[in-house]
Amino acid sequence: MPKLLKSVLIIFIFFFGLSLMVPTPLQAQKSKKSIPTLKVTVEDFSGGSRLRITSDQNLVFSIRKSGYVLVITFRALLGLKIEKQSFSSQLITSVDLAKSPEAYLLMVKARTENFNFSHNARKSPFEIIVELKNKEDTKRAETAAAAPADKTLEPTATPPTTATETTLNQKESSRKQVKTIVIDPGHGGNESGAKGIYGTLEKDITLAVSKKLKEEIERGLKYRVVLTREADVSVPLERRAAIANNNKADLFLSIHLNGSRRVNASGSETFFLSLNATDEEARRLAYFENNSEELGSRVPEKDFDDLKLILWDMAQSAYLKQSSQLAEFVQLELNELLNTRNRGVKQAPFKVLTGAACPAILVEVAFITNPEEEKLLQSEDFQSKVAEAIYRGLNRFLQLYEKP
Amino acid sequence: MKRKKKKLTTLLILLLILIIVVMVFFFGSRKEKIKHLTRPAVPGTAATQTKEVQLKKVTLFFLSESDDLLHPEEREIQVSNLNEEAEAVVEELIKGSRSGKLNPLPENTRVRQIFVTSEGTAYVDLSRHLLEASYYGSSGEMAAVYSIVNSLAYNFKEIKRVSLLVEGNERETLGGHIDLSRPFLPDYTLVAR
């Protein structure tokens, strides 16, 4: 008899366990009507600060460091609230919750960029412990010699007034004297892009055109040119924009070829980014648009406060006006030089453009699926013409912005 | 001995009741999920016909070859709940245009699930066949994305944004062009006037 009891108990425990596991996270979140709350506490230990985040519900999250801000992204369908205790810390200045279209972001601002972090997470009860350690403490001797004195002061700089902004810009321009154009040959590696009837691959032509464009620019302008790929390799889309940003690019040009289901589709078109932004986002973006009237007056990185930083992965939004102008000039020259059908300047939410922190366009040179245009695209002569047209377009754009 | 046995049986009965409660919870929630996944297997069977099928008009957007803009076409779908009506709209898009416009979605694409959140984001989960749309470059991706986004947002006021999933997963792009990582707002500038 006790055996029976035992087996029944086991079955019971089994089913009970199952019943706990069954509801999917989505259902669980739906059924639990309550909005999860993050409880945040901050405390110091020697050499750093410890951030403890707990919640009554398990949450999916990711952590990344961006400058002097640590961003913890939470995917919460229902919403998210924050409860924080006031604190004073040697390393952390503020902790705030912000909302982006698809996630909630906990922005942990530090006094300096020079910190390392490590984290530990636990489920049920949900808890994340993040430890921020001051790099300077360990490497003070090295950094004092290497970094200029103002670097450590930057994060604590006062909010930008017009006066400080101009000095910041001056600092920017003196810091980078060589101007850079980044060219992005579309696709590559195992992503061959669109394909022509004669077997021409988009990735090969985009690379050939990009290399010719690089030569053309270096011959005519005092610009450094960087290609996002020099060979037939696959480069992730976000990496391409990052290459532009890491090189402090002044222009970003992505070269692509078009395709269509119908063979007689033809012509050239130039794209700049369409925002696809929600109202809330659009309001914040207005800030950028007003602050980037001139080329070179890039939005100072330290000026990205909590809310603006959310958009760092949408950096292009600050440069839409200039990008549309650049697109107009390039499209004009393409029409003039190539004799292809003018498909005009268009806007689309291209992944590769979203992260570029400078004027950026994507050129669809011609249709590789059109046999006539495919033949043209194969010829070196036509490729050179394309490069020249784009060069002329960007040159006109640069002249507009270049100060004597 | 007898008393012990009696005690055991009452214990057993209690446990059984508990098990049943647990199983109702288990299968109950399961059933809800299934209901949400299945759609009427054979539309227009005897059962539904006797019930008098209610139809409603919807507007679909297809890409025209001549001007590269989206053009409206009307269809009738069965009146049902929001998720199922949204599925019907996307299925009609897959069937293609009746006036010779380009079909924006590969015809073997299947609608896996559509789910509209209370905040107005429609999650449209399609089979991997959708990726074939990207064989035709950025214009192919634009056509696929915005025929779905515009058609859904235009017909259902509850749908404000559309997020595309492929085989249940988020994707960066279909084939290297259009950014799928953010939900789409409808873009009516792509619609012909």
What's the shape of chain B? elongated
N to C succession of SSEs of chain A: HHEEEEEEEEEHHHEHEHEEHHHEHEHH
General shape of chain A: elongated
Parts with pLDDT < 50 across at least 5 consecutive residues of chain B: 30-48
The main β sheet of chain A shows up as: 6 strands, mixed
Q: What is the straight-line distance between the termini of chain A?
A: 98 Å
Range of strand content of chain B: 15-25%
Overall helicity of chain B: 25-40%
As a whole number of angstroms, the C-alpha radius of gyration of chain B is: 23 Å
Strand order of the largest sheet of chain B: 3-4-5-6
Helix/sheet category of chain B: alpha+beta
Our Rg estimate of chain A from Cα atoms comes to 26 Å
Description:
The complex is a heterodimer of chains A (404) and B (193). Chain A has a six-stranded mixed β-sheet, with helices on both faces. In chain A, helix 10 (320-338) packs across helix 13 (380-401). Chain A is an alpha/beta fold and 404 residues long. Mean pLDDT of chain A is 77; it is low at 24-32, 141-176 and 287-311. Chain A contains 13 helices and 15 strands. Chain A has helices at residues 2-21, 25-31, 135-146, 149-153, 162-175, 202-220, 237-246, 279-291, 306-309, 320-338, 351-354, 371-378, 380-401; strands at residues 37-45, 48-55, 60-66, 69-75, 81-84, 92-100, 103-110, 115-122, 126-134, 179-185, 223-227, 251-258, 268-273, 342-348, 360-367. Chain B is an alpha+beta fold and 193 residues long. Chain B has four helices and six strands, in the order H-H-E-E-H-E-E-H-E-E. Chain B has helices at residues 2-37, 46-50, 82-95, 137-155; strands spanning 55-63, 70-78, 111-116, 121-126, 161-166, 169-170. A four-stranded mixed β-sheet of chain B has the order 3-4-5-6. A two-stranded antiparallel sheet of chain B has the order 1-2. In chain B, helix 3 (82-95) runs antiparallel to helix 4 (137-155). The longest helix of chain B has 36 residues, at 2-37. The model of chain B is unreliable at 30-48 (pLDDT under 50). The interface between A and B is large, with 51 and 43 residues.
